[in-house]
Amino acid sequence: MSVTETGATIWLTGLPSAGKTTIAYELAGRLRTEGHRVEVLDGDEIREFLSAGLGFSREDRHTNVARIGFVAELLAANGVKVLVPVIAPFADSREAVRKRHAAESTTYLEVHVATPVEVCSVRDVKGLYAKQAAGEISGLTGVDDPYEAPEAPDLRIESHRQTVQESAAALHALLTERGLA
Hints:
Blueprint: E1 8-13, H1 20-33, E2 38-40, H2 43-49, H3 58-77, E3 81-85, H4 91-103, E4 107-113, H5 117-123, H6 128-133, E5 155-157, H7 164-177
Parallel strand pairs: 1-3, 1-4, 2-3, 4-5
Helix pairs in contact: 1-7, 3-4
């Protein structure tokens, strides 16, 4: 790694089970192999450690996204490529993170992992869709809680139409195009 490496926050937003985390870890491995400093701020881990105690109200979701955005910007400003696979269902929360990065002159890229809810519910990595269908939980993003898809993301990945490796390669190509990889 060069001392002058440019950091960036790469925010992967999408529905539960869209493939955000899988793509992030695939890309992280590739970037590390190339010698980049990389961190993955996984939404589930953040909720357990940094945002423990927060619920899933709109206000709590906004607070969670703001906390993650703060940590991501701090790392990115110090030369780390920060991959953030977090649902972040509300456009205004994501915009606040973008503005924080802009105010600090730190690169922020928004990637929409645009997997249809029908595909996500079949994947159901954490069993959330099954629990929602059984009436065990409510407030599932994209089902009975809103998800505001990005209108103009830096990249839209349709993970249901390509492999994880192809999705990560498309994101790597964007980073290369922007001079970040």
